[in-house]
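Fold these two proteins, one after the other.
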Amino acid sequence: MVTNSVNSKPSSLNDWTYSYLKEKILNLEFKPGQQLHIEDFIDELEISRTPIREAFLRLANESLLDIKPRVGYFVSQMTIDDIRDLFEVREMVETWATRKAAEVLSENDLVELRKLLGESTAAVNSGILDKYLEVDIEFHGYFQKHIKNKRMLEFMESIQDLTYRERVLSLQSKENVRDTLVEHKRILEALIDRDGNQAAWLMGEHLNNVCNRLIKHLYSEVYSYGKKL
């Protein structure tokens, strides 16, 4: 993610303000359902209303903000149905990509995947969850590189920000982080055996498990998201 400093504004205030607010939303510093007020950022960012309003509209166009006429702007919700929908899409695409990857991954690719798995484990053991998240995204993205369907890739990119919020939320579940490492290892073992069907099945099981663990975590915690889950 791009890190923006209030004290180092670029020449394009519109783009800078958009990136600053987007990062806060994606990292759940602004909670789902939270209302955002343009006036609150005028003094904080030391800018006028115009770039803030333009940023809000861009974020709304990307489904990260909801606009309620005559009420205001709200960070888009993360409901149970939203999470299930996102994982259903991911499962359809990533199981296909994993099956295909088993056929085309080179030995060097497999070495790289082993390296990523080792980095994930080290990051968790060291408590560096930001690094774990970065490597997790890279691990899953490795399989999508082998999809030749341009439209499918464009669609996955279009929901990348929404799935990022889900990933950030999943870090709050220690059970999920621990079990994900085990499931990634099983997927890699199937790929090493060049068993595409098994690798695809394990990827589907992994994504379904993550979805269920995340929902379980949401039910067990109290969130000030503005609406019930």
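Now the second one:
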Amino acid sequence: MGNAPVRQGTFSAVVQMANPIFILLAMGLPIAALIYSLNFGSLTTLNYIHIMTGALWTGIDLFMGFILGPVLGRLDPKARADIFRRLVPRMTFLMPVLATVTITSGIYLTQRLSFSFTDPWVLAAGIIAGLLTVQGFGLLLPNEIRIFQQLLSSAPDVQKIARLGMTNARLGGLQGVFQLTIIFIMANIRF
């Protein structure tokens, strides 16, 4: 959390932990790009936004699950909690935006390219996207909120922060595997 602990217990404290400029860029750029492409952009622009946000989402999840997760697993809980103190505030703002923009642009691409939502490949991609959404918004995000609650409390539980953070790192790896499966499916749809 840096030099001075933030214990205000408010949304503004969370924003300060994540850095307002980072939040503006991490949330504003993908959302603005999606809005622009849906209203004024070409199919190529929409495809680019889908691929870029999907690549970032997948890459971060794979990094979390297969690189950072095993490294953190070898650290003591206090060291792990110190890393999650710095990581979680930014991830909480970045990952839901990347996931939402990727999935939304994918749905619009499916429509604009006239793919049938009943095609088995499209249906499989949709089911996996649904699983990713449930996992992300039903498990990962609530864990991040629990971590925030600990970070903002007067006596943060280091063990709980470390445990929840490791759970999210493992879930991130699972999300990466699901995302690689979608990439395989999309390659079969397109060619």
